[in-house]
Amino acid sequence: MINEIIQAPVESLKPHPQNDEFFDDIDGENYQRFKESVQEDGIISPIVVSLDMTIISGHQRYRAAKDLGIEEVPVLIQDELTDEDQKLKALLAANFGRIDHNPIKQSKVISKYEELCGISHGGDRKSSGHNVRLNQKDIADQLGVDERTVRRIKKLQDLIPDLQDLVESGQLSKTAAIKVWSRLPEDEQQEFLEEIGKDKLQEMTTKDQQSKVEDLKMKLEKAEKEKLELERQKRVAESRKQKAEKEKAKLEKELEHEKSKEPEVVEKEVLPEHARQKLKELQIKAAKLDELKESQEEVKNYKQRKRELEKEIGQLLEYQRQLKEENDESAQRAKIVEGVCGPIRKLEKHKAEIEQLLKLEVELDKWARENLRMKADFLTELAELIYGRIDGVSVSSPQKAEVIEIEG
User: Fold this and answer.
1) Residue 401 CB burial class (10 angstroms; 0-12, 13-18, ≥19)
2) What is the pLDDT of residues 307-318, one digit of tens each?
3) 12 domain-assigned
4) Which residues have CB under 8 Å from 261's CB, separation 6+?
5) Is residue 277 part of a domain?
6) 301 and 396 part of one domain
7) Is there a smaller number of Cβ atoms within 10 Å at the N or the C end of the chain?
8) pLDDT tens digits for 371-387?
9) What angle do CA 252, 255, 260 make, to 5 degrees?
10) Model's pTM, two decimal places?
């Protein structure tokens, strides 16, 4: 019974569980015509099944037989199909040619078939279950199409789900989908589709879509450049912000430090020029007044000194009287020299001081000047009196001192 055509009950057959995933049923008038053909001619080509009676090829014949009430159908059992991958691979290869109207399912069939053969993106791999190296051309031959068709149809798998739905529904042509949309990254596909709109896309030719997409790409590239520039500016701004925050923190720290210090009073010159000039004049006058005050104090001191001198003169006169009373004339004269010379020198010194003071250009009042002059005259008369009453001779020692006679 193996690899031979036999009659098998329709109820013993099992549709492949993944058939509907990759292939569509015939529907509408086409299905009606197909059923009529089966009813008139019967099932000419046997239904291909695996050992467990899973249908590999012939799902539409099986469906028509059930609908027509046919109890037995011819089947061809392929005993080499022992595992699920082998069954699926045979299913895809046997039925690929009948799905020309659905390019999305075609692309799914090719991708799945390459996966089952161990091939990815056209590279050579060992086929699962067989020690045979296959490439994309081998796959194309097994599916009954050329290699270029395989490459083109596979690109439909690069579409986002929304675009695949439009291709399946016929709103987007296979050519436009492959030439325009499959070349874009998924994020751009989504963005451009939202920009154009599904309804408007259906009305556009492939050329219109190509032009629109290129225009949108230029805008996107421009926007991307602007975005990059904004990001760069943002990074610069962030860097400046960080520097400003550091500077702010530094200034705040310095401010707190300054606040902790004792306040420093800074005097600032605010007097106008005429006021400063007036102040200067007043300071000069104040200095002169201070000098005048000192001169007046000196006058008072000289008055006091005059009284002291008068007292000393009286003492000298008394001393002269006493000397006359002494018998020893030489001793008397020596004592006179010793006692009188000192006060005379003091009188001469005071006289010189008073004369020097009168020569100074000091602004004294009339009273002060008159007092100074009187004092000077007095000292002069006193000196003349003393010098007039002393007859002096040189002495070399107290024993041989000159005799100075002071007349009473």
Assistant:
1) buried
2) 887 787 788 778
3) no
4) none
5) no
6) yes
7) C
8) 667 766 776 776 666 65
9) 130
10) 0.48
